[in-house]
Design goal:
It is built from 5 helices and 7 strands. Helices cover about 30% and strands about 20% of the residues. The structure holds guanosine-5'-diphosphate. Keywords: Cell cycle, Cell division, GTP-binding, Magnesium, Metal-binding, Nucleotide-binding, Septation.
């Protein structure tokens, strides 16, 4: 998709702050440093629209972006950062659970996984959580440019096997460096968004 406009709508922590209207939403989740901001920026053709607001130590908010006036991306703060207090972790969990379980506009979640390593325990927990609530999930395997092409299939298999990826969920190999996977990711996202 050619993105002609993208901007942040609101940083929300509770449902009263979610944007009104009926635009389809795609949420994006992943552990800290997985390449989520880079993915969002690459998809939107922006240098730094998604950035520090979701970094560890910053206020944990759901950041809603409006794209071409037709859909929302919802940037979920990264998980798995060791230095987060138990209290902060609990607040994060509550915020995500409320969003996932109450938001009618949610069409699918993009779950980002670093292609170089097997999914972490937290990645598996997140995938299981999404499947528990029947949320369609798109796995984006990030940083493809960091491993040789000859190893891609092996790493993809480890991700699929570790998550026990359901057949209805898709997996896209992605690189924000080369743009690999961008068109495929857009196709899947627009499909889930009914666009
Ligand atoms: P976030 O914490 O998930 O938002 O991760 P960032 O997007 O900030 O990326 C974390 C680090 O990984 C940064 O140094 C990025 O430049 C790097 N990175 C992200 N995506 C890629 C990628 O596709 N290829 C390479 N080589 N580096 C990447």
């Amino acid at each position: 998709m050619k993105v002609t406009s993208s901007e942040i709508v609101i940083s929300a922590v509770k449902p009263a702050q979610y944007p009104e209207g009926n635009l389809p939403e795609i949420a994006l989740a992943g552990r800290s440093n997985v390449g989520k901001s880079s993915f969002i920026n690459k998809m939107l053709g922006r240098k730094s629209l998604a950035r520090t607001s979701s970094k560890p130590g910053k206020t944990q908010t759901l950041n809603f972006f409006i794209i071409n006036e037709i859909l929302h991306f919802v940037d979920v703060p990264g998980y798995g950062y060791a230095k987060v207090s138990k209290k902060e972790r609990e607040a994060w969990g509550k915020m995500i659970e409320t969003y996932i379980t109450t938001r009618d506009q949610l069409r699918a979640v993009v779950l980002l996984i670093d292609v170089r390593h097997p999914p972490t325990k937290d990645d598996v927990l997140m995938y299981d959580f999404l499947k528990h609530y029947d949320i369609p999930t798109i796995i984006v395997a990030t940083k493809a440019d960091k491993i040789p092409k000859s190893k891609w299939q092996k790493h993809i298999k480890v991700i699929k096997d570790t998550l026990q990826l359901e057949a209805s969920d898709s997996l896209v190999l992605f690189s924000s460096e080369t743009g690999q996977g961008k068109n495929e990711a857009w196709r899947i996202i627009l499909d889930y968004s009914g666009k």
